[in-house]
């Protein structure tokens, strides 16, 4: 990622106005730098923003405001761009990129925050003065036009009708690419009301969840310790109300790790599935950075089992080793598809296998504000091929009678149902679906007809994790 490039000019140079007076306040400057790095350099907001906040020495309310502006602007980019195009009278893509990013931040403040309109306009014009000095008059005029309506009125003016073009309407109104809206609607059985609730949830700030590692921490006690609340579904989950989770002693000393509750549930489901015969050899075929391996490793420790955690990317394999220190886990930095070729990955050897496959990540858009704009439908072909190959390798690795859990953090049916059905069909081994619903906590609502399970942000407060559990015959 190219996040380091944001600081090519010093903060003082960028901020100095006439007479050395700081022209732009530091949180807005930081948000601008982050949004520009994401749009210009393909940086990731969750990596670049913390670096900028550190470099600028922003903490507390200033850091929170910069974060809100950055994430909000990136999430709402589609709607903001449509509005800016209309307000500017020209395609937003034809506006000079630094001025365009400043306008996006200004429009976000006008339409989605309580910042008074005059402050949003004047601070953005100040910003434009430093990044595109010839465009201050243009920026002022565009933002005054934007400020003339609230966001609902803009959507009403610009979006197609919900009756004749529901996907187009939802895409513009809730700032998701059309192909993503279509994929969500399909995965939700065509229910556009539910699709709308999902899109709204995707634009919210996601909560931080901790996983209290079984045998090392208790969720209720950990919730008391960190001032959080025990999770609604996972017995290991703790909901944090705020603050930096990395600073918590429980995380620093390995009793807990940061992990979405949905990820906890699908990993724990593999461990909970009934199994006859030996149960000591567990395999995680796509382990980096080690969230699910951390939970499975802790469960393995309680059951005298050992987890082999495979990760193809070297730096991510190192993260897995860090995340599983002290647990009965062997980390292999290799390609999971080498089952049967790598002596450490023999065929018909493992009792329980997790394939947490690389995917589009459309189920965790809340956490990665830029990813909805970066992902393309054309990504699907290569990803689904890799998913099929990895699931095929898992089915070779598992012993007859053993279990394979196939997991994605995407609800796209091509990555979920189609991949599982195709991989099982091509595997050449007998495979049965295990009903995954009873493997999740009793009473969990909205789990559908089975045998697979799809979790949803708007139904469960989790990422949209998909789970299929297969038993090799
Ligand atoms: C969705 S992530 C896994 C997340 C992880 N299970 C966790 O809970 O932290 C998929 C991982 O698979 C890895 N990967 C991609 N292709 C692979 C392959 N052929 N063999 C093994 N790992 C692979 C990626 O580098 C990435 O770290």
Characteristic key phrases:
single chain, 473 residues, alpha/beta, N-utilizing Substance Protein B Homolog, Chain A, Alpha-Beta Plaits, eight-stranded mixed beta sheet, four-stranded antiparallel beta sheet, binds S-adenosylmethionine
Description:
With 473 residues, this protein is of the alpha/beta class. It folds into 4 domains: 3-146, NusB-like (N-utilizing Substance Protein B Homolog, Chain A), CATH 1.10.940; 160-202; 208-258, Alpha-Beta Plaits (2-Layer Sandwich); 261-472, Rossmann fold, CATH 3.40.50. It has 21 helices and 12 strands. The chain has helices at 11-15, 26-41, 45-56, 60-75, 77-88, 97-112, 117-131, 136-146, 151-158, 166-174, 178-187, 192-202, 219-226, 249-252, 261-272, 291-302, 314-323, 371-374, 379-397, 414-426, 457-460, and strands spanning 208-212, 229-230, 237-240, 256-258, 281-284, 306-310, 329-332, 350-356, 398-408, 431-434, 453-454, 466-472. Strand 2 (229-230) and strand 3 form a beta hairpin. The chain starts with 10 loop residues before the first helix and ends with a strand.
Number of domains: 4
Bound compounds, each kind once, are: S-adenosylmethionine
Which fold name fills CATH's third level, the topology of the largest domain? Rossmann fold
The residue fraction in helices comes out at 40-55%
Distance between the termini: 43 Å
Compute the number of strand runs. 12
The computed structural class is alpha/beta
CATH level-four homologous superfamily name of the largest domain: Vaccinia Virus protein VP39
Biggest β-sheet: count, sense, barrel?
8 strands, mixed
Q: Which value, in Å, is the CA radius of gyration? A: 24 Å
- For the record, the CATH class of the largest domain is Alpha Beta
Low-confidence stretches: 1-22
Given the C-alpha coordinates, what overall shape results? globular
Q: Could you say what the CATH architecture of the largest domain is?
A: 3-Layer(aba) Sandwich
Number of helices: 21
Strand content: 5-15%
Q: What's the average pLDDT? A: 94
